[in-house]
Amino acid sequence: MTDKPAGNPVAPSPWWTPARRVDIRPFLAARTAITRAVRAWFDDQGFVEVETAILQVSPGNETHLHAPRTELLGESGERVTRYLRTSPEFSCKKLLAAGESRIFELARVFRDRERSELHLPEFTMLEWYRANANYDAVMADSLVIIAHAAQATGIGRFSFRGRIADPFAEPELLTVAAAFDRFAGVELLATIADGKGDRRALAAMAANKVRISDDDTWSDIFSKILVEHVEPNLGQGRLTVLFEYPAPEAVLARAKASDPRVAERFEIYACGVELANGFGELTDQAEQRRRFSAAMDEKQRRYGERYPLDEDFLEAVAQMPESSGVALGFDRLVMLASGALRIDQVVWTPPLGDA
Question: Which of 47, 85, 163, 175 is deepest in the core (most CB within 10 A)?
Answer without folding.
Answer: 85
